[in-house]
Amino acid sequence: MLGRKVIKNLLSYTLKSCVCTNYSPQRNIQVSLVGTTNDVGSNLAILLKQSNKFDQLNLYDDDCKVKGIGMELNHIPGGPEVRTWAGDSSLQNSIRNSDLVVMVYRVPRKPGYTREQMLSANAPAVQKLCRAIANENPNAFLAIATNPLNSVVPFASALMYKYGCYNPFKMFGITHIDTARARMLTARALQINPLDLTVPVIGGHSDDTIIPLFSNMAPCATVVDPYKADTLTRLVRKAGTEVVFQKHGKECATLAMAWAINEFINLMIDAIRGQEVIVNCFTANPNFGTRFFSGATKVGPYGITQACHSFQLSDFESFLLNTAVPLINRDVGLGEEYVKYIEMMEKY
Ligand code: LMR
């Protein structure tokens, strides 16, 4: 288990080691996508192919269909060069030279299932990826969009710690989908343009831990009354589960999810190129009574420079935070404990 002290020590150790790294803003930038052939992965790949911010897109999947996806994407003029890798034995090659590795692999959630119940289905793929990164490219940024995010990010962190290369500044759970939904649902309720609106979302990524902060919206002249805040919070929290139901068990959110991950990746590439950016993510963060927490996070070329820390909260938001903290702690513990379980299962 990654105690608070361990995280603090790691933070100071890694910061020192990061400062010594040579950073060259001119070099080629590579992004790897792990889990390309599912609907999130393939939609994300076409969005990324339209970016002029990086040079090479490495697509990996167990399924050899990834080869056809890559071939097709290379028929589209412009954007990064696309390279593909299929099958377990090529996972290491697919991430070897990447600056940013993004995991979108997932077994989709069925109606009636919670995200929490997806840990055993998705953990083995996360473990394989962590091993590959530890062996081949421990300095890469690792961003995960695989559920249950509240447990998978601590699980991956504990694994990397065990493999001797955990860097809390470079490990992210992507939560841009929650800010996108909060923005859209609020803009619709207030009949304003979503592009003019920012709604911070903190907490975790599950029905009871997503906390939209309507009291901290920008522009600040926009006001959501307490009744609307309650209704909108329920809508934002349930949005993913509602998509699962509307797709009749065949998939969960894929298009908006790909859009949201693409938004995150483009910002991260700006960071890798030397800018300081703000992304929404679930990361190591001891500021709210949990070891991991989601919110607006500053990132620069060497990783996180500032995790989200304090907000003026309404009474309702304070209540949501107080009820979410024990749930996040439970999910974090489950993820960390799962390392022991999966290693024990490997022996049989
Ligand atoms: C979402 O929020 O849409 C994702 O976490 C996928 C899911 O299972 O709900």
Keywords:
Rossmann fold; alpha/beta; 348 residues; single chain; L-2-Hydroxyisocaproate Dehydrogenase, Chain A, domain 2; 2 domains; binds (2S)-2-hydroxybutanedioic acid
Question: Explain this structure to me?
Answer:
This protein is α/β, with parallel strands linked by helices. It has 2 domains: 4-175, NAD(P)-binding Rossmann-like Domain (Rossmann fold, 3-Layer(aba) Sandwich), CATH 3.40.50; 177-255 and 276-326, Lactate dehydrogenase/glycoside hydrolase, family 4, C-terminal (L-2-Hydroxyisocaproate Dehydrogenase, Chain A, domain 2). 46% of the residues lie in helices and 16% in strands. The strands form 2 sheets. A 9-stranded mixed beta sheet has the order 3-2-1-4-5-6-9-10-11, sandwiched between helices. A two-stranded antiparallel sheet has the order 7-8. Helix 7 packs across helix 8 (226-246). The model is unreliable at 9-22 (pLDDT under 50). The site of (2S)-2-hydroxybutanedioic acid (LMR) has 11 residues, from helix 8.
Summarize the structure.
Helix content is 46%, strand content 16%. It has 10 helices and 11 strands. Helix 6 links the parallel strand 5 (141-144) and strand 6.
- Report the end-to-end length measured between terminal Cα atoms: 23 Å
CATH class of the largest domain: Alpha Beta
CATH architecture classification of the largest domain: 3-Layer(aba) Sandwich
Give the DSSP E fraction (strand runs of 2 or more residues): 15-25%
Question: Hetero groups bound?
Answer: (2S)-2-hydroxybutanedioic acid
CATH topology tier name of the largest domain: Rossmann fold
Rg over CA atoms, rounded to whole Å, is: 19 Å
